[in-house]
Amino acid sequence: MVDEDEIFSLDLKNFRKEQQELTNTRTRDALIESNVSDEDLTDLVNFHALDRICNDLEISREEFYDFITEKKTATIAAHAIRIEESRRGTKAEQFLFNEIDKITSKYGINIVSLGPAELRPTKDGKLMDKQEFQDSGKNKDTDCLKSVDGRITGAIDGYIFAKIVHGFEGGTGGHQDNVFRESSEFAEWIKDFGEPDKIYVLLVDTDLHDLFKAIHDKYSSDNLWIVDHVDLQRKLIESVS
C-alpha cells in the first residue's frame, strides 16, 4: 500500500516558482535544526550571500546558525541566503528525477538523470553509450531516437524517456505533433527491441490530456509504463511492496 502523503508532487506548469518555494522551505527547515552545518546546507544556500550577512553582523557562520531558533526568523533568513533556482538552471526532468529518487530510494529503487547524449536508442535496436555511438559512425539525426533521459537501477532495472510539456492546453498543431511523434517512436522501439525483464517508462507530464490518453491507450503494457511523475512513484513502490 502506497502512503500518498509520501508521494512527491509538483505543479510543472509553474516549475520555477514551485522549485523555488521547495528550496525556501527546505532551507528554512534546515536552519531550524540544532547543530546545522555547512554540509547540511550545501544544496540549499548561497554561501556568498550568507558570508555577506555574517560580515555585516560581525559573526561567524556557526553563530548565525545558532541565532536561528524559530520558524519566523528561519523564514526571513532562508529568503536572504537561499540559492536562486533561476540561476541554478536545473532542467525540469533532472529536478523531477532527483526528487523522485529521494522517495523511491527508500524502497531500493534508484533514479538517475542521464546527460543529453549519454544513452541513445538506435533505429536498428541497439542502446549505445557515448563511446559506442562515436565508434559506430552513426548519425544522431538519421540513425537514432531521442536519447534516454533517466536510468532506473536497484530493485528495478529500466529506462525513462521523458516528455514534460505544460502551458499548451487547448492548443493544436506542430507542438502536439512533435510530442506524439517522439513518444510514439520510443514506444514502438520498446515493442520491437525492448527486453522483457526491464521496465521502460514513458514519462509524459503534460496538460495535453487528450494526447496523454491517446499515447497511454495505444502503447501501455506490463513493461512499458506511460505515466506522469506522481503515478511513476506509485507504480515503482507498488512493484516492490
Overview features:
alpha/beta; 241 residues; 7 strands; 15% strand; five-stranded mixed sheet
Write a structural description.
This protein is α/β, with parallel strands linked by helices. It has 2 domains: 4-88, no CATH class; 92-114 and 149-240. Helix content is 47%, strand content 15%. The chain has 10 helices and 7 strands. The strands form 2 sheets. A 5-stranded mixed beta sheet has the order 1-4-5-6-7, with helices on both faces. Strands 2-3 form a two-stranded antiparallel ribbon. The chain starts with 14 loop residues before the first helix and ends with a helix.
Strand and helix layout:
Elements: H1 15-32, H2 47-57, H3 61-67, H4 71-81, H5 85-88, H6 92-104, E1 109-113, E2 119-121, E3 127-129, H7 130-136, E4 150-154, E5 158-165, H8 174-193, E6 199-206, H9 209-219, E7 224-227, H10 229-240
Helix pairs in contact: 1-4, 6-10
Radius of gyration: 21 Å
Low-pLDDT segments, ≥5 res: none
Structural category is alpha/beta
Characterize the overall form: elongated
Report, as a whole number of angstroms, the end-to-end distance. Answer: 7 Å
Summarize the structure.
With 241 residues, the chain is α/β, with parallel strands linked by helices. It has 2 domains: 4-88, no CATH class; 92-114 and 149-240.
